UniProtKB/TrEMBL annotation, chain A:
It catalyses: 2-methoxy-6-(all-trans-decaprenyl)phenol + 2 reduced [2Fe-2S]-[ferredoxin] + O2 + 2 H(+) = 2-methoxy-6-(all-trans-decaprenyl)benzene-1,4-diol + 2 oxidized [2Fe-2S]-[ferredoxin] + H2O; 4-hydroxy-3-(all-trans-decaprenyl)benzoate + 2 reduced [2Fe-2S]-[ferredoxin] + O2 + 2 H(+) = 3,4-dihydroxy-5-(all-trans-decaprenyl)benzoate + 2 oxidized [2Fe-2S]-[ferredoxin] + H2O. It is found in: Mitochondrion inner membrane; Golgi apparatus; Cell projection. It is an enzyme of class 1 (oxidoreductase). The gene is COQ6. This is Ubiquinone biosynthesis monooxygenase COQ6, mitochondrial. Residues 195-308, 353-426 form the FAD-binding domain. Pathway: Cofactor biosynthesis; ubiquinone biosynthesis. It holds the Pfam family FAD_binding_3. Keywords: Cell projection, FAD, Flavoprotein, Golgi apparatus, Membrane, Mitochondrion, Mitochondrion inner membrane, Monooxygenase, Oxidoreductase, Transit peptide, Ubiquinone biosynthesis. The keyword Ligase does not apply.
UniProtKB/TrEMBL annotation, chain B:
The gene is COQ3. S-adenosyl-L-methionine binds at residues 125, 155, 176, 223. It comes from Ursus americanus (American black bear). Its cofactor is Mg(2+). Pathway: Cofactor biosynthesis; ubiquinone biosynthesis. This is Ubiquinone biosynthesis O-methyltransferase, mitochondrial.
Length: 469, 370
């Protein structure tokens, strides 16, 4: 703790110096405005709205004032649209628990979602596969459209509007940070200036404004980031025939992973990460060709080589000898017949990680703190995990009468989440790099690795547990 | 070293009284405790006056010795009957202690500064106070668990403990003899409109506020204070007066053991610098047994005594079975029959009457307990 404090003091000094020009033009003196918000969440996306909701429903926040700032307009639905949205998320059981803690999960259940029980992940260059399966027939995860989640969160926010104020179409343009401890006449709160010129004061600012976070940039927090040479193509697909459709499929092609996520008995969502050129091509090509490309991506064994095949057979027989029950046969995903018109969209991918998640009176959550490749379906789950952890720490702090912006509990949140997120980020990046090649030695390595992991159940269970948090 | 300085400051006061032979200087003397500025003058006075009036000083030195080391308020009053007319404001506040705190007044709210251990002690003492107070109510408002409670924070310093209690909904009165501390505390709470309304600060000592706040407080908190007062007995009596029947008294302080000398003074102050030098005097540390006996003899029944341990590496405090260093105590004022308030006897005063009351007072307490 002392070391951490020393480091943070150390960090604060150069950054305070760096922040000098910003501060000097916006130092408040004298006039104390009427409302000081306890928490302001900047960014009303999935993670930001969930944060505001969780705080609004928290028992120790009943007399606190919370504000949510969202740059976009309020999204209202009179009724659920027939067509499925093309942006979906895989919600882990841990995230579902968070959403149900403030009643949003019930709304989602009343709208639509799809639970899946199994996940098959396999290689295009070999026979190796890993099958995640929950023995006790629990759900492994849920595929929910982002719009549905957003609608549920909005409904819950409306229900608690006496504690949580939501400002739509409000974007913060600048932030003023307080000095480390009270100096004569300088306000100890964070001041936020909105686009319309009004200002807000808050004891704690939570930055949930996405991977190009304005809050993070204004605070001068270093961000380790790089762009992948990949873009993701999403689409809503119609299956050839109605099936039980409760399996999530992902195949690692040399160009990138392609995933098929179940939406309903006849619909699935596609997430295909591939090179920028190929992605543009996919979005542009006509429907039939697109469907054929998808089917062959899942079924074709064109990338197999004899060498790898024989090597993997060897290991497979060893595994079969040692643990006869654990040999899983490769299954094929359902074939695709059509794609929804206008549902093909692409977006670029990258990795990002903020060096610090917290500063005095500031915390980053969601994509503002970390950005990950969608291959593991963990992006929004990490964000919801951040929300869980931060709400837990803030709730305890509020019950102890602490100043919400105090570093003592914010560093607790940071340590908690950095440990989890760094591991997941590193693993995802490693997997992405490992599977982006068709060079024989690496293919061999990953084939054997995958087969071995598939055979070791405790290891698979650990992986599933880690990803379900 | 500490003792010497203390003595000379008292010596000077009585010297001044004797030399001027004027009643008005007592008024000065009485006000000394609340004025830190005068206190500073006091200490610089000594070297000049000593050489000329050496013999007088020697006599006064003995008298001031008794004054300083007298634990019992009554004996002091017996010796110096003129004091009777004034409140006992001088009897619990130690001027030399005021100086130490004055020097560090501006550092109160630096969470990583000299007062970091006190900031982190809030993690123990706020839940301790909160949970024990919540036991006395049937149900509480979520979000404001202590709303409706009146708490007196004695020796509040910069308001480190008053603010969390205010945030939990209590109405807090924070008092401290050091003006500067109260100024800092006022300034800090002024930025938060909610706290501004809930907390009130006053620069005074406990004795000065006793009359007006008698029997109005649900809780009195004296955290890290009793090891700085001169007269613990009076202090506890005043705390008891302020409490409603059934009200709670919370004390956190340091035990008087060899370990507390080694770790609390030698290590913390001189070696590691965890606590600023000169903050504590080992002689004034109070053992839990002594504290318990004083509490019980004043009609406060001790509910909990728990040890606290500070880890200087992590900066966090922990509860412990061991009370040989820091400890926290919770006592409740009995709701039984009214028993005569001891402090009143102190003001009235023939010696015989006082002696009678000396003997009957503890007797009265015991009878009530039976």
């Amino acid at each position: 703790m002392a070391a951490r404090l020393a480091v943070s003091r150390w960090r604060a000094a150069p950054s305070a110096a760096g922040r000098g020009p910003l501060l000097s033009c916006r130092r408040w003196s004298g006039a104390k405005a009427d409302t000081v918000y306890d928490v302001v969440v900047s960014g009303g996306g999935l993670v930001g709205a969930a944060m505001a909701c969780a705080l609004g429903y928290d028992i120790h926040f009943h007399d606190k004032k919370i504000l949510l700032l969202e740059a976009g307009p309020k999204k209202v639905w009179e009724k659920l649209p027939e067509t499925y949205s093309n942006r979906v998320s895989s919600i882990s059981p841990g995230s579902a628990t968070l959403l149900s803690s403030f009643g949003a999960w019930d709304h989602i259940c009343n709208m639509r979602y799809r639970a899946f029980r199994r996940m098959q992940v396999w290689d295009a260059c070999s026979e190796a596969l890993i099958m995640f399966d929950k023995d006790n027939l629990d759900d492994m995860g849920y595929i929910v459209e982002n719009d549905v989640i957003m609608c549920a969160l909005t409904k819950q926010l409306e229900a608690v509007s006496d504690r949580v104020t939501v400002l739509y179409r409000s974007k913060a343009v600048s932030y003023t940070w307080p000095y480390p401890f009270t100096m004569a006449d300088s306000s100890p709160w964070v001041h936020i200036t909105l686009g319309d010129g009004s200002t807000l004061q808050t004891k704690l600012l939570i930055g949930a404004d996405g991977h190009n976070s304005g809050v993070r940039q204004a605070a001068g927090i270093q961000n380790v980031s790089w762009n992948y040479d990949q873009s993701a193509v999403v689409a809503t697909l119609h299956l050839s025939e109605a099936t039980e459709n409760n399996v999530a499929w992902q195949r690692f092609l040399p160009s990138g992973p392609i995933a098929l996520l179940p939406l309903s008995d006849t619909l699935s969502s596609l997430v295909w990460s591939t090179s920028h050129e190929h992605a543009a091509e996919l979005v542009g090509m006509d429907e039939e060709k697109f469907v054929d490309t998808i089917n062959s991506a899942f079924w074709s064994d064109a990338n197999h080589t004899d060498f790898i095949d024989s090597a993997s057979t060897v290991l497979q027989s060893v595994v079969g000898f040692l643990r006869p029950t654990k040999v899983s046969a490769r299954q094929l995903p359902p074939s695709v017949a059509r794609v929804d018109a206008r549902s093909r969209v692409l977006f670029p991918l990258g990795l990002g990680h903020a060096a610090e998640y917290v500063r005095p009176r500031l915390a980053l959550i969601g994509d503002a703190a970390h950005r990950v490749h969608p291959l593991a379906g963990q992006g929004v789950n990490m964000g919801f995990g951040d929300v869980s952890s931060l709400v837990h720490h803030l709730s305890a702090a509020a019950f102890n009468g602490k100043d919400l912006g105090s570093m003592s509990h914010l560093t607790g949140y940071e340590t908690d989440r950095q440990r989890h997120n760094t591991a997941l980020l590193a693993a995802t990046d490693l997997l992405k790099r490992l599977y982006s090649t068709s060079a024989a030695p690496l293919v061999l390595l990953r084939t054997w690795g995958l087969q071995a992991t598939n055979a070791v159940s405790p290891l698979k269970e650990q992986i599933m547990a880690f990803a379900s948090k | 070293m500490w003792g010497g300085r203390k003595l000379s400051s008292f010596g000077n006061r009585f010297l001044g009284v004797l030399r001027s032979r004027c009643w008005s200087t007592q008024a000065e003397g009485a006000r000394l405790t609340s004025s830190a500025g005068e206190c500073q003058n006091q200490v610089s006075w000594t070297p000049q006056t000593k050489p000329w009036v050496f013999s007088e000083y020697r006599i006064m030195w003995f008298k001031s010795c008794r004054m300083t080391f007298a634990c019992l308020n009554r004996m002091k009053i017996y010796r110096y009957p003129w004091r009777r007319l004034y409140s006992t404001s001088q009897t619990t506040v130690d001027n030399s202690e005021i100086k130490t705190f004055l020097a560090l007044a501006h550092r109160w709210w630096d969470e990583q500064g000299v007062y970091a251990p006190l900031h982190s002690m809030n993690d123990l003492r706020v839940p301790f106070i909160r949970d024990n107070l919540l036991k006395t109510v049937a149900h509480h408002q979520s979000g404001k668990p202590l709303s409706g409670m009146k708490i007196l924070d004695v020796g509040c310093g910069g308001g480190l403990l008053s603010e969390p209690l205010g945030r939990l909904g209590a109405s807090v009165i924070g008092i401290d003899p050091v003006d500067e501390n109260i100024k800092i505390a006022q300034h800090h709470k002024s930025f938060d409109p909610v706290l501004d309304k809930r907390i009130e600060y006053r620069a005074c000592s406990l004795e000065e506020i006793v009359e007006e706040t008698a029997e109005t407080c649900d809780a009195v908190v004296a955290s890290e204070v009793v090891e700085h007062v001169i007269d613990l007995e009076t202090f506890i009596q005043c705390c008891c007066q302020v409490l409603k029947p059934g009200g709670s008294l919370f004390i956190t302080t340091i035990n008087k053991t060899q370990l507390s000398y080694a770790l609390g003074i030698v290590f913390s102050e001189q070696i590691a610098g965890i606590v600023p030098k000169g903050t504590h005097t080992w002689e004034k540390f109070v053992s839990p047994e002594k504290l318990e006996s004083i509490l019980e003899s004043n009609g406060l029944s001790v509910q909990t005594v728990a040890g606290m341990l500070y880890n200087p590496l992590s900066g966090y405090w922990h509860w412990s079975e061991n009370t040989s260093l820091n400890y926290a105590a919770h006592a409740v004022k009995s709701t039984g029959q009214e028993h005569p308030v001891p402090a009143e006897f102190v003001f009235k005063g023939e010696t015989e009457e006082l002696r009678d009351k000396d003997s009957t007072n503890p007797g009265v307490q015991e009878e009530l307990k039976k």
